[in-house]
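Tutorial handout. Part one gives the primary structure; part two gives the three-dimensional structure as tokens.
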Amino acid sequence: MSSPRHLKLIALALALVSLSLFATACNRSKAQTNQADRNTAPAQPVVVQVTTAPAVSRQLPRFFEATGSLAADEQTDVAPAVAGKVIAVGVDLGSYVQQGAMLVRLDDRDARIRLEQATAQVAQAQSAVRQAEARIGLRSGQQFDPSNVAEVRSARVALDLAEKNLRRFEKLIETGDVSRSAYDQQRAQRDQLQEQYEAQLTQARQNYAAVQTARSAVDAAKTQVTQARKAIADAVVMAPMSGYVSDRPTAVGEYVTTSSKVATIVRPNPLRMKIDIPEQAISEVKVGQSVSLAVSAYPDRTFNGRVARVSPSITATSRTLTVEAEVENGDNTLKPGQFATVRILLPQSAPAVLIPARAVRTEAGSSRVFIIKDGRAQQRLVQLGQAEGDLIEVKTGVAADEPVATSNVEMLSDGMTVTQ
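Part two.
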């Protein structure tokens, strides 16, 4: 049996264990309660610091904007006038050439041989002309008159003498001083001389026809000389205008024909650009209006020009009017073929609301800004217009003098609390 003292010790130990278990349970319950309280506590609101700028209203110049490609003022593909083998090339890609400068030279030996032959033919034909003229007594530059030919003159003298004798015999036969047979003989002689005279006239005219034929042969031979000289000159292919060589596909030793391109020359100043104007705006575009042009290669520069030509008719399919602008390009900065955006300044201006471009956030094709009022951001969908420096026009969504957020715009949402 246990003693009373031993039982008291056991009871005290059990009491201490129970008290320890109770304290542990209480502490765990209190910790769980504190954790639950923390989980259910409200989150603190997010506050974004922003800067603002007021929307401004001002008169904004209006313009029509279009895109297109720049074209050279003039461009030509040069082909030789004669076929031949290239023996020299005087230009290369990018070369600047003056009008009349040599582009390529062709072998002209065949043309020179033809020139020598044609020159000899001219000499032969001229000799034949002199011989034909000598046969009729015609001097160089003298007008032809068949009565001046020696044979014709002699025949005419004999005929005139026979005519006089016949007239005398007619009188003598009336007086009976000559017989009828003598008169008939004299008349027969006169008729024979008449035939001889006419034959000499015919022969003189035939001889003169031979002279004309010989002269025609001279002209034909001279034409051959001219053609041969032209072929020699055409063997040098020259630049038809001043400009830059944009293509030179020919090399020494190549055989080219009259359809072969030996070079392409462009004149890049001024440059041209065609613009299609909508039908409703055609009354606002006139020759001489200023234009400004921008290209991606020079994003910080603008180039000035003017409307140079206006089409007399509207394109039926697109209902647009084609105008052509000229842009000065004296330093050859711009290149034909570049894609450009051109603005035609219209004569009138209009009021517009502008805000800093950095205030606009564009996502999925929609543009929005945030108006700051009473410490909160209000989201506005806007329709943008033309840019003016670091400002941009808003056609709808923002009124003049309304403050718009210009910093931390990407962190804002509608209704968010902000500080300035």
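Part three, for discussion. The two ends are 87 Å apart (CA to CA). Residues 110-229 form one domain.
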